[in-house]
Amino acid sequence: MNPRHLTFHYTLKDDRGRVLDTSVGAPPMTCVEGAGQIIEGLEAQLLQMTAGQKATVVVPPERAYGPRDPDLVQKVPRARLPVQEIRVGEQFQTEPDRHAPVVTVVAIEGEDILLDANHPLAGQELHFDVELVAVRSATAGELTQA
């Protein structure tokens, strides 16, 4: 069977109900089944839905961005960083390559900077309100871009 192309709207909330992201008011999201374009737990739920259906989906960390890994929090000398101005909470890529890890500045301790390379949503249960707008077979072009 050909992988499916999914078109959907979503609102992502944290476990306190705070909205983190939404497609409402913008074009819907699209993805190709099995291409790793969205988190596993959300894709699995969307694949069980029919076009026009709405659902609330709760995705545990293991099927989203994984648990937090304490080994991904490291102290680095300020001189090794690719940025000049550094503030707690800022994020930047560690290298120019677009696939390079993104880190968050957790603390500044003199000339040492504490960086966290965990995904910002790692360890969190994610709550989605979703509406599956359309489902169809993916085209050859969509499969090569996925």
Q: Can you walk me through this structure?
A:
The chain is mainly beta and 146 residues long. The protein has two domains: 4-65 and 122-145, Roll (Chitinase A, domain 3), CATH 3.10.50; 70-116, Beta Barrel (Thrombin, subunit H). 9% of the residues lie in helices and 39% in strands. It has two helices and nine strands; from the N terminus they run βββαββββββα. Strands 1, 2, 3, 4 and 9 form a five-stranded antiparallel sheet that branches. The protein has a four-stranded antiparallel sheet with strand order 5-8-7-6, with no helix packed on it. The chain is elongated and about 55 Å long. The two termini are 17 Å apart. The mean pLDDT is 91.
Spell out the blueprint of helices and strands.
Layout: E1 4-13, E2 19-22, E3 29-32, H1 40-46, E4 54-59, E5 73-77, E6 91-93, E7 102-109, E8 112-116, E9 126-137, H2 140-145
Antiparallel strand pairs: 1-2, 1-3, 1-9, 4-9, 5-8, 6-7, 7-8
